[in-house]
Design goal:
The complex is a heterodimer of chains A (219) and B (245). Chain A is α+β, with helices and mostly antiparallel strands and 219 residues long. Helix content of chain A is 53%, strand content 21%. Chain A contains 7 helices and 8 strands. Chain A has helices spanning 2-28, 30-36, 40-77, 82-96, 116-128, 174-182, 187-194; strands spanning 101-111, 133-136, 139-141, 147-149, 155-157, 160-162, 166-171, 199-210. The N and C termini of chain A lie far apart (61 Å). Chain B contains 6 helices and 9 strands, in the order ααβααββββββααββ. Chain B is an alpha+beta fold and 245 residues long. Chain B has a domain at 105-230: Alpha-Beta Plaits. Classes of the chains: A alpha+beta (219), B alpha+beta (245). Strand 1 of chain A pairs antiparallel with strand 9 (243-244) of chain B, so a sheet runs across the interface.
Chain lengths: 219, 245
């Protein structure tokens, strides 16, 4: 029966092709399509963000290229590459929260009602502005840290209760972090509208000391 | 000749003529302003779109270069460390930290969370349409819940979530690790399935997302997955101001 079975297989092939084409278009062009809907102002902000990310990547590539050459020279001369290994170890320990760290940055003091979602937003905003290490009231916030609330409404970091008032410390460029927090329409401005009874004070810090994570992620 | 309708007075025709003219004028005006507007906005956005796309392409290239350099340096280190015990111990510790930092691919069982905005139906405007869209806070809430559920590795649309990861949202476009993306979002979390499901199914968790799913058709699904893959982080570590103490 050419008509029925032929028709069915043709329909199946057509269906399959249709699904393929649609998924292809969706995965390939998924951000492109949403970009086309953005206003010039949004696009400009996105472009500034992309450019900043790319120069960050460029700096790290430059750095790593020098280190690769130095390590290669060390290996060739037989002096070993302990200094490079030490450097990698230190960088990774800072990145994973495994060691206490120091450096310049900002602090954000929060006095009054605040919740775990707002804390999560604030940490996200600090990371977006290039914060390299963050802590709150002497408790380090790590790569896998999560925020919650106790039954009586106190904030928790990794299940440890942290009573207010809170001081969040973030190491990074003080100017970049400060502007990212306090700019018009920025996160602190939004918080001031939402938590009307709460005081937010952002200040630049020349030296901050942050502790290591209590339990650093191990693999 | 017999007319189908009752004969109209000239006055009655004039009454219809005026609104018809006005209507025609309005339609024409509306059409013209819309055409003008889209021309202007297209002229302004076209170069911006090109710039955004080429920066994203450049970023992909930079990430490949960075991964390549990391692999080269790793190889030099590895062959050097095979020669002495101190270096060997150091290398073991570095490997462990690279895994903890998210610089290596991870695979295993876990869960997949899919989040998508629903195109608002015609006539649904304002806050209702707004609630059916997904926002960057939805992604940070889901990431927070999956860490809470004991995840060991998470990715969002193929971008590994690490210590420096942020979710940035503008308009309907999002950035994770500085990479442009748009809904649907697929969050892959590797870890104990039971523990992860317990948190994600808990009505007290992600309550806002679940409310919008039920009331406004936001797409939000959680499924168990076996043999899942979470890619390595390919961005910069960017440790510049902070020094170990």
């Amino acid at each position: 029966m050419r008509t029925i079975s032929g028709g069915v297989s043709a329909a199946l092939v057509a269906l399959f092709l249709g699904v393929l084409v649609v998924t292809q278009v969706r995965t390939q062009d998924v951000y492109s399509r949403s970009l086309e809907l953005e206003t010039p102002a949004s696009l400009t902000t996105l472009i500034a963000n992309l450019a900043e990310r790319n120069s960050e990547l460029g700096r790290e590539i430059f750095d790593l290229r020098l280190r690769t050459e130095a390590a290669r020279a060390d290996a060739a001369s037989g002096t070993g590459t302990l200094s490079e290994a030490q450097r990698q170890l230190e960088q990774l320990e800072v990145f994973t929260g495994g060691t206490s760290v120091g450096g310049p940055g900002i602090s954000v003091r929060i006095d009054g009602p605040f919740d775990e979602k707002a804390l999560s937003d604030l940490v996200n905003e600090l990371r977006n502005a290039g914060a390299e290490a963050i802590s709150m009231n002497g408790l380090r916030i790590g790569p896998r840290s999560w925020f919650g609330l106790t039954v009586d409404g106190a904030l928790t970091i990794d299940a440890v209760a942290v009573p207010g008032p809170w001081t969040i410390s973030a190491i990074g460029s003080p100017d970049v972090l400060y502007v990212a927090m306090t700019r018009t329409g920025g996160i602190v401005g939004q918080f001031e509208l939402i938590y009307r009874g709460t005081r937010f004070v952002v200040s630049r810090e020349t030296t901050l000391e942050l502790p290591a994570l209590r339990a650093a992620p191990r693999g | 000749m017999a007319s189908l309708t009752a004969p109209r007075s000239p006055l009655g025709s004039a009454v219809l003529l005026v609104p018809a003219l006005l209507f025609g004028l309005l339609v024409t005006l509306q059409w013209r302003t819309q055409a003008d507007r889209s021309d202007v906005s297209l002229r302004r956005t076209a170069p911006l779109l090109d710039a955004a796309r080429s920066l994203q392409d450049e970023q992909n290239g930079l990430k490949t270069q960075l991964a390549d350099l990391r692999a080269q340096l790793d190889e030099i280190q590895r062959s050097a460390s095979s020669q002495n015990a101190v270096a060997r111990d150091l290398q073991v510790r570095i490997d462990e930290l690279r895994r903890a930092a998210g610089l290596t691919e991870r695979s295993g069982d876990g869960v997949v969370v899919v989040l998508d905005d629903t195109r608002p139906a015609a006539g649904v405007a304002g806050s209702d349409a707004e609630r059916a869209l997904c926002h960057s806070t939805d992604l940070t809430d889901i990431i927070n819940a999956t860490w809470r559920g004991g995840a060991v590795a998470i990715s969002v649309n193929g971008e590994r979530v690490v210590g420096s990861t942020s979710v940035y949202c503008i308009g309907s476009t999002s950035m994770v690790n500085g990479t442009l993306m748009a809904p649907p979002f697929s969050i892959v979390a590797i870890g104990s399935q039971d523990q992860l499901m317990a948190i994600l199914d808990d009505p007290a968790q992600l309550a806002d997302i679940k409310r919008r799913r039920d009331a406004h058709g936001l797409a939000f699904t959680v499924t168990r997955g076996a043999g899942l893959k979470v890619p390595a982080y390919t961005g910069a570590l960017n440790v510049r101001s902070a020094t170990a103490r």
